[in-house]
Amino acid sequence: MACAIASFSNSYARLPEHFFARLDPTPVAKPGLIVLNRPLAQDLALDIDAVDGDALAQIFTGNIIPSGAEPICMAYAGHQFGSFVPQLGDGRAILMGEVFDRSGVRRDIQLKGAGRTPFSRRGDGRAALGPVLREYLVSEAMHALGIAATRALAAVTTGEPVFRETPLPGAILTRVAASHVRVGTFEYFAARGDQEAIRRLSDYVLDRHYPGAKDAERPHLALLQVIARRQAALVSSWMQVGFVHGVMNTDNMAVSGETIDFGPCAFIEAYDPAAVFSSIDELGRYAFGNQARAAQWNIARLAEALLPLIDPDRKRAIELAQPVITEFPTWYEHEWIAGMRSKLGLELAQDGDLELIRGLLDAMQANQADFTLTFRRLCDAAADGDDAGPRALFADPGAYDRWAVLWRNRLQSEAGSPAQRAQAMRRVNPAVIPRNHRVEQALRAAVEREDFAPFSELLAVLSRPYEEQGAYLAYAAPAQAGERILQTFCGT
Ligand code: AMP
Ligand code: MG
Fold first, then answer.
1. Per-residue confidence at 1, pLDDT binned at 50, 70, 90?
2. Which residues are catalytic?
3. Phi and psi at residue 288, in whole multiples of 5°?
4. Does residue 114 contact residue 62 with C-beta atoms inside 8 Å?
5. Atom 12 in ligand 1: which residue has the minimum CA distance?
6. Considering only CA atoms, which of 71, 61, 56 is closest in space to residue 3?
7. What CA–CA distance (Å, rounded) separates 57 from 350?
8. Long-range contacts made by residues 208-214, C-beta under 8 angstroms, separation at least 24?
9. Are 306 and 223 in contact (CB under 8 A)?
10. φ, ψ (nearest 5 deg) of residue 81
11. What is the pLDDT at residue 2?
C-alpha cells in the first residue's frame, strides 16, 4: 500500500554501504496507536490529517513503509562503562529516513523496537511498553524544559509480548533526532583503522550540524572543539534541572549535542551529587555530579578517533587536540555558573558568585532540600522577600537563613525590580519535572492495566514545566517516603 506522509530526503543512506545495513522493520501482529505528537508532526510537515488511527498505527510500527523511506540500521561502536565494544549498532532501531522540518533542519525519523537487525547480537530487537513510555515522557519533558533532546513522535503497541524477566507488552517508539551519529559511530571506524570512513563521517557531520567549522584551518580539530562545547553546554543544562542520564556511554552521546537514549535516566529530588539510580551503575560512574567528567572522558575518545585527521603526525595531532580535553571543564564551568546565576536571579557576574552558589547547594545537600522546589520557591522569595517557602524545605531552616542573608546582600547590586527578577527566575526554575515516582505510576498503569490516562495527564503537565498549573499542583510535590524510587532499569 502506497502511503505518502512525508517528503523524505535521505542523506545517511547515501553514505558508503558499510556505514549501515538496509532492512525493513519486522511486521508486528496487532498495531495500536497509543499517542501521536501532533505539534511535532506539524513541525515536521508530516501529512497525517487524512490518515486514520489504524493506518497511523501501521506506519509507526513499521508494518507500512511510507513511500520515500529507506530503512537502515546504523553501525556504531562504543565505550560502555569504560570498556570498548567494537560493534554495537542499531540492534533494535531502524532509521526510516530524514525529513526537513519547517525551519529547514534535517531530522531523522527512527523506529525504536522495530525488530531484529544484523546488530542485534542476542537481543530480540524489540522494546517493552514501559521503557517506550518512559522515553516518550522524559524526552518530551526535556524539550519542554528547553534542553536539547531527541523528540518522541509516536508510541504504539505491537500486540506481541516481549520477554524480559517476565512477559511484557511490546511497543515501538518513533524518535526524531537532529541525527543519530554518536561518538561511538566515529569509534566504530577508528577501531577498524578506516580513515577514509572517518573522513566521510566527519564531512557528513560538519555539513549537517556544524557548517561553520568547515572553513577552519583544521576542520577536524574545529569539529572536535564544537562538539565538546555543545556537550559542555548540554551537561550543564542537565545539572540545572537535576537530570541524571544514567548511562553516558560513548554510544549514547550524540555529536549533535542532543540528549539521547533515555534508559535508566532519573531526576534527583533531594540535592545529592552522588545520586545514582541506574541498577547497572554499581560504581556510580555516571552519578549526578560526575556527568561533566563523564562527558569529558567521552570527548577524549572522540579526539582519539579524530587524531589521524587532525594531523598526520600523531604527536602533533595530540598536541593540537589536548587543549580541547583540558579546557572542557572550564567551558563546562562557564556554562554552569551562568545557568546557576540565572536560577538565583543574578544578571551580573561578580566575584564570589561561585561561593554563593556552592553555599546554597551545600546547605541543600546537608539538609535534604528538594532541588527543584528550593529553586522554584526562591522565585517567590525573590518577589516578596518572604523566605518561609524555601526555608521550610531545609531540615535545619537556619542553614537556609544563613545563606539567604548572603543572597539578599548580593541581590542589592542587581538592577531590576523584585517582580521582574522573580519573573525571570520562573522562566529557568521549573515548577514541575518528571518526578520518578510519577513516571513510575504512569508506566505501571499503562503496563498493568492498559490505563493510559495517567500517562496522558503527566505528559500534558510536563509540557508546561515553568507554569504554575493550579489543578495539577500535586505533580510538583516530591515523593513521600513510601513512594521514593531508588533504582531504575534500562529495560532492554
Ligand atoms: P542501549 O543500552 O539501549 O543504549 O543499547 C546498547 C546496545 O544494545 C545497542 O547496540 C542497542 O541496539 C542494543 N540493544 C539494546 N536492547 C536491544 C534489544 N532488545 N535487542 C537488540 N539489541 C538491543
Ligand atoms: Mg544506546
1. low
2. 251
3. -45, -50
4. yes
5. 91
6. 56
7. 55
8. 208/11, 208/106, 208/178, 208/179, 209/178, 209/179, 209/255, 209/256, 209/257
9. yes
10. 50, 40
11. 62
| β-strand partners of 80 | 83
Of all helices (H) and strands (E), which one includes residue 298? helix 291-310
* pLDDT tens-digit series, residues 12-65: 999 999 999 999 999 999 999 999 999 999 999 999 988 999 999 999 999 999
135 lines ligand 1 (CB under 6 A): no
**Cβ of 117 below 6 Å from ligand 1:** no
Q: Which of 23, 87, 92 to mutate to test the pocket of ligand 1 (most atoms within 8 A of CB)?
A: 92
Q: What is the tens place of the pLDDT at every residue in 135-147?
A: 999 999 999 999 9
Q: Which ligand is nearest to the CA of 177?
A: 2
Task: Indicate whether residue 89 lines ligand 1 (CB < 6 A).
Answer: yes
Question: All 3 cell numbers of residue 458?
Answer: 503527566
Q: In this predicted structure, what is the pLDDT of residue 197?
A: 98
Answer for the pair 448, 130: CB distance below 8 angstroms, yes or no.
no
**What residues form DSSP beta bridges with 266?**
244
**In this predicted structure, what is the pLDDT of residue 491?**
63
- Name the one residue in this structure whose C-alpha cell is 522577600: 385
* Residue having the nearest C-alpha atom to atom 23 of ligand 1: 91
CA distances from 100 to 88, 195, 207 (A): 28, 30, 15
Which atom belonging to ligand 1 lies closest to the Cα atom of 89?
10
Ligand nearest to the backbone CA of 74: 1
- Is the pTM for the entire model greater than 0.90? yes
> Phi and psi dihedrals of 316, rounded to 5?
-65, -40
And the C-alpha cell for 49?
A: 490529517
User: pLDDT for 328-339, tens place per residue?
Assistant: 999 999 999 999
- Cell 534541572 found at: 241
Ligand 1 contacts CB of residue 90 (under 6 A): yes
Instruction: Record the cell numbers describing residue 143, joined without a space.
Output: 524539550
On the 0-12 / 13-18 / 19+ scale of CB atoms within 10 A, 108 is buried
Q: Is the CB of 92 under 6 A from ligand 1?
A: yes
Q: Give the Å distance between the CA of 309 and the centre of ligand 2.
A: 26
Least confident of 23-27, 440-444, 471-475: 471-475
Angle in degrees, 0-180, between the axes of helices 219-241 and 314-343, rounded to the nearest 10: 30
